[in-house]
Amino acid sequence: MSRVLVLNGPNLGRLGSREPEVYGSTTLDDLAALCRDTGHRLGLTVEVRQTDDEAELIRWVHEAADERLPVVLNPAAFTHYSYGLRDALAQRTAPLVEVHISNPATREEFRHTSVVAGVATGTIAGFGMMSYVLALQAVAELLAESP
């Protein structure tokens, strides 16, 4: 089974209580279980992590690059301004799928720009927690296609 990191940025540890009208009532623990269950069905071992610390997130991205691990990433607010994260992601050695629970294009203007998108394999946004399921399906397909 291929190992996949599902990495979540700032404030996503507050899922379930943070702006439920935008992010729903699913908690981070619920999301982690959904990702692990989806991964199991797809033949993937999924490890879910969350941090509010940009440096820690960058260390995890370096780990993924060094170990050639695919990443599903919700960079949260770091999406819009973290050039350090973007530069770390540019070193990726396996598929990278950027994911967002809401659709940033329908929200405040500052959310319309992603500095991450340009180095990602693809982006999935606006499907709630299903965005993660779709991202894991994409990773499984990409891994199946690679030599």
Question: In words, what does this structure look like?
Answer:
- The protein has helices at 20-23, 28-42, 54-67, 83-89, 130-145, and strands at residues 2-8, 44-50, 71-74, 96-100, 122-125.
- It is globular.
- The protein has a five-stranded parallel beta sheet with strand order 2-1-3-4-5, with helices on both faces.
- It is an alpha/beta fold and 147 residues long.
- α2 packs parallel to α5 and α3 runs parallel beside α4.
- The mean pLDDT is 93.
- It has one domain: Rossmann fold.
- It starts with a strand and ends with a helix.
- β3, α4 (83-89) and β4 (96-100) form a beta-alpha-beta unit.
- The protein contains five helices and five strands; from the N terminus they run βααβαβαββα.
- Keywords: Amino-acid biosynthesis, Aromatic amino acid biosynthesis, Lyase, Membrane, Transmembrane, Transmembrane helix.
- Pfam families: DHquinase_II (PF01220).
- The record marks 18 as: Transition state stabilizer.
- Catalyzes a trans-dehydration via an enolate intermediate.
- This is 3-dehydroquinate dehydratase.
Sheet/helix structural class? alpha/beta
Helix content, binned percent: 25-40%
Q: Report, as a whole number of angstroms, the end-to-end distance.
A: 16 Å
Which stretches are poorly predicted, pLDDT < 50 over at least 5 residues? none
Taking the sheet with the most strands, its summary is: 5 strands, parallel
CATH class: Alpha Beta
Indicate how many domains the architecture comprises. Answer: 1
H/E order of the elements? EHHEHEHEEH
Average pLDDT, to the nearest integer? 93
The CATH H-level superfamily is Dehydroquinase, class II
Oligomer: single chain
Please give the number of β-strands: 5
Site (Transition state stabilizer): 18
Transmembrane segments: 115-140
Keywords: Amino-acid biosynthesis, Aromatic amino acid biosynthesis, Lyase, Membrane, Transmembrane, Transmembrane helix
Enzyme class: lyase
